[in-house]
Amino acid sequence: MESLEYLTKILDKISCSSLENIQIEEQNKEYEGITFSIGKQTFRSRKAKKTPKKSGYFVVFWEKDEDNRNQAYTSLTAPDKLVITVFDQEKIGQFIFPKEILVKKHILSHEEVMGKMALRVYPDWAQDLNSTAAATQKWQSPFFIDLTNKIDFEKLEQLYFASEDLPAKQKRNWK
Q1: What does the domain layout of the chain look like in residue ranges?
Q2: What CATH fold (topology level) applies to the domain 2-165?
Q3: pTM of the model
Q4: Are 56 and 88 in contact (CB under 8 A)?
Q5: What's the average pLDDT block by block, 10 residues per block, for the chain (175 residues)?
Q6: H-type alpha helices, the chain
Q7: By C-alpha distance, which of 115, 96, 111, 106 is closest to 164?
């Protein structure tokens, strides 16, 4: 899995802890769906796909309910962060969304909100977007990091571990 290999490589640069509890999500295998943890934080990961007719990149995330129907993930059972990796020829980037923003944007189901089973993401390099896509890119941008060339390790660490109290000795000294 390309995204898992990349996750391992990039996280090795910012944390001394390794990926643990890795589970492949069979229902989302086409998008390289996996869950994992680092320390006390839990993650869900996907590889986004470029679509030929629309700007941005498409990704799915759903599970089966007790009647074997697809449903959006719930805020109660969702991991702490959703990582979406984008590979587009020479460009690489990641969105690292905390659960709280996914609840706020009605992506995870909660209370009376149905949630979504798919999402389109717009990296900072996506241009000439329609107004809806541009508005989506605007709220997504703080959670995106371009990993194509020079990596901002401080921002990467912040996106992955901002809400975790990792002891300093567990964080990688990247300076």
Answers
A1: 2-165
A2: Trna Endonuclease; Chain: A, domain 1 (3.40.1350)
A3: 0.89
A4: no
A5: 90 86 88 92 95 91 84 89 96 96 93 90 95 96 95 92 51 44
A6: 2-12, 99-104, 131-140, 153-161
A7: 96
